[in-house]
Amino acid sequence: MLHQIEKLLLAAMEQGRDYDVPSLAVATGLDPGAVMKGIAWLEEKGALAKSVSISKKTEITDEGKHYIDNKFPENRVYDKVVAAGENGAPMSAFDAEETRIGLGLARKSGWIAPQQSPNGFTFRKGTAPAVDKAKELKAIKLGPHTQYLVEFMERKLCETIEKKSVSVKLTESGAALRKDASMPTARSSTIPSNADIAAPINTITSDFIRAKAWKDTGVEIRGYNVLAPVEVPFAAKRHIVGRAIRRIKDIFLSLGFEEMGGSLIEAGFWNFDVLFQPQDHPARELADTFYLDKAVKLGSGGERALIKRVKEVHENAWGTPWLEAEASKCVLRTHTTAVSARYLAKLAGSKIKKKYFSVGKVYRNESIDFKHLAEFHQIEGIIVDENATFADLLGTLKQFYSRLGFEKIRFMPSYFPYTEPSLEIEVYFEDRKEWLELGGAGIFRPEVSKPLCGRYPVLAFGLSMERPLMLKLGISDIRILYENNMTLLREQ
User: Fold this and answer.
1) pLDDT tens digit string along 328-377?
2) Helices (H), 155-193
3) How far apart, in Å, are the Cα atoms of 429 and each of 245, 322, 398, 471, 491?
4) Residue 237, C-beta contacts closer than 8 angstroms, at least 6 positions apart
5) Among 29, 131, 170, 197, which is most buried by a count of CB atoms within 10 Å?
6) Which domains does the chain possess?
7) Are strands 112-117 and 89-90 parallel, antiparallel or unpaired?
8) DSSP alpha helices (H): ranges in 319-445?
């Protein structure tokens, strides 16, 4: 069934001729929007062949017209300098626009030159002849051939306007459709009003069905071309990093862990000292750690007894004085193990068994490249149970990575300052056919867990989050995860 708009367009066209939108609007009495709508419908039916041409024209902007009416500021500067004669024109001779724009451009072009004079700093006539830029800008209307076109474009005094023209002609199918269909005979009596143009029903609602409105005379339901190409719909979804964090949390919760939380800003005491890291360790230097210009006062609550125990452990083990001032410095936490330390301290004097995990941001003074960030996520976990063994730690890690989709997992002996024994976790990445290290783990040294909570052993692990995510997504540059690449976010 043809819509009235389509019939009007077909009636106004003859085979073999090209028509544009304005001419069809005049011939049919429709507004251009309705003409374009009718052309799209007829094109879907194969009744019209459409061609689109784009023409470009350079137009002068409102700012450019202002300069034409009032002269360019550099030309006005030049005129004032010439009028001032040998003594030159002082800065006070120029208005704000001439000072802000004209002076610099006139000097750059060599039209004027600065000079020292008895009355101060002035400008005299330069060596290059001045050009009437207003005249050059006007000439653009005749064709943008002036050598100043690039400058005028950069100064936004003119712009290129693209104009799209649509032309259509009847196809063989359109001619046959025009011949077979009942065409309007009197244009004046068949031109639809705006209300008529909107009359076809495009959406079938429940109210429309219940009222049986389709039975009303004159109601037309618009047909749908279910084969017409459409854009792929993209539903809203969580960011890939956020989805990964939720997945990791779900895995640990299913394994019986409880989630930990902590501050991004920590005292050096909790970030370094309680983890048996000596106060002269290189990791505590500015090259590796972000320090804040503040310090905290240690010793609130039951913290003073812990400070005493940590001090004794450090001085006995490292043989150097332990300074509370160094431990009081504030840092952006370099690892989430500081969170584990605080939770262990809460268990002091208790024999309760606990399994904790956290996923949080940490900060390192790193040079950012394809595999390093200064701000990234770390997966942290501890198992507090005197009956726990090293095998329990291996089994937990293997179960975690298996649920993430990494089936081939191996453990390599390693060294970490606050665990002993220590290991690195490596997973086999099929696409690269190689083993990749994704984290470290071990048993907290007695020098760590004994002062904190009086317990041993305490199993611990710290794992990378962005690296396995990169492997899963096939990304070679870690920065891509945080660039808000819409194609990546939609497709993953």
Assistant:
1) 999 999 999 999 999 999 999 899 999 999 999 999 988 888 778 889 99
2) 172-180, 187-190
3) 20, 45, 15, 7, 21
4) 243, 489
5) 170
6) 4-58+163-215 (1.10.10.10), 62-139 (1.10.10), 241-491 (3.30.930.10)
7) unpaired
8) 324-327, 337-346, 390-404
